Amino acid sequence: MKKIVRVLFLLLLVVAVWYLFIKPYDYVVRFPAKTTVGTINQSIKSWYAGIEGTQLIDQSKFDELTQRFNFGDSIHTYTWKIEAETDSTSRVKVYIKDNDHSLANKLAIPFSKTAIEKRSEATVKEFYNVLMLHLDRTRVTIDGEDSTRATYVAYTPLKGQQVEKAKGMMYNYSLLTQIMLKGKVELNGTPFVEVTNWDMKTDSISYNFCFPIKKSDSLPKHPEIKYKQYNSQKALKATYNGNYITSDRAWYALEAYAKSHNIPIDLTPVEVFYNNPNMGGDELQWKAEVFMPIKE
Question: How far apart are CA 19 and CA 12, in angstroms?
Fold first, then answer.
């Protein structure tokens, strides 16, 4: 009997030491979301960018983000771990630690509703509401395998952050329109973006904003405009509805779909746009066809 008591005491001691001194967080909040890991990743970043006193500490993994929040006299570390359940659903766990009062929180949490619990639940709920609102304002439909359309194009090569893509498109839409009209160039379809490099760790892209045109021997010359033949590619296709600032949500949906169906792809999406963002209107009526090239 004494031996059993000693074993139980040692087990309780080990658990207590782990809980108080080794456990890397004070509290955890969990929630499911009907969207991809990438959409949640991007939504977290755009949400906290508008909150004063926050800082992204680490994103060594695409499905894991670590942030620091300043709440008055307390500094909290939030580690977001996002797990894909299917190619369109995810589960999020948020591990929270008060950097200066962790031991006190761990002692109090089993016996009362602590300030860190209330703060953590309110903060994560705020993000969850922002995410749900974003999902209400965007729609991604996977259409399956298709091909992009071959065409001759006038284009401007650009680079920057993913969230800056729509801004670059709006400026260059006006530029290309003016130059093509002045040069009496015949258009041959709707404009599209050809991503040539996508760095998922830094959320940065290099891309060509393209105007399909009829090839001729007298195309206008401009220092920012180039010309080339764009060739058709076999690809996975999705239809995106929403603000073009967040059309990259379709990239993540196609990447997740390809992964779950063992389809090899190149992470160089092509987006074909059917609305002019400069004209405004109901964003859910904006349409883009998004293609993710399939490796040969």
Answer: 10
